Amino acid sequence: MPAGTLYRGREGMWSWVAHRVTGVLIFFFLFAHVLDTALVRVSPESYDTVIQTYKTPLVNLMEYGLVAAILFHALNGLRVVAVDFWSKGPKYQKQMLWSVVGIWVVLMAGSFYGILQHTLISWFGK
Amino acid sequence: MSTEISDAIVVPSKQAHTGKGLGTGNPADAFVIEPPRKRTEKTPRRTRTNFEMLAWLFMRLSGVVLVVLILGHLLIMLVLDGGVSKIGFAFVAGRWSSPFWQGWDLLMLWLAMLHGANGMRQVINDYAEKDSTRLWLKGLMGTATVFTVLLGTLVIFTFDPNI
User: Fold this and answer.
1) Predicted ipTM of the assembly
2) Which H or E run includes B85?
3) Which of A1, A19, A61, A115 is best to mutate for the B interface (most B CBs within 10 A)?
4) Is the pLDDT of residue B12 over 70?
């Protein structure tokens, strides 16, 4: 590793990269989401028409992806807070990252049916 | 054997604001990459505010609040009670008849937009190297943010279920 580089690799750098990428993705979705919600001020019909696209299988799957990004950003953000404010945070940052990944996997598995139930029921019935 | 470092700029910490060297007084500073947004000769010795520290603190405080607000929002909208199927004008009207959920959504809107905008500001600062590019990107992003926050606020406050 050359001296003075900002990029040190391993858990610290990659969690930082993932935090950035998910953060930017979520921010762009937020713009779209405020705009689609603003349609409630136009008419119930226009709002319901746009919300129909949220119920198509492809967008339903993208919602699962959005939840994946948000859950990682939220859990890793709590890890960043712990690193900054907890005296032992920096020492345990790696263990905390793997805890984040573990909790993320559990929550993603647990929310799979809940989020995709609309598509699953429309395809396979109750 | 001598290691010649005569061209290294070594300045005491009191002169850190001059932009000459890192200002730690350590000769090894000459081999360290210049930190981003280093203080230069144009930087006042004391800036007027603690903006960057307050921004750092805001990201952590708003982040913790947003974890609760957004995960609650996702659970209600995407998982409970049939998932996304139930969402429609009537559902929104039902929720926004309660000041509690209006306040929830308003706080979520403001905190999320400001949290996201400050994150984007840092990303732009890190990757856009030209001064004019940074200025344009931040101007565009700031304008879009102000527009979206005001639009969302207006929608929450003026919502009319009988439209």
Assistant:
1) 0.90
2) none
3) A115
4) no
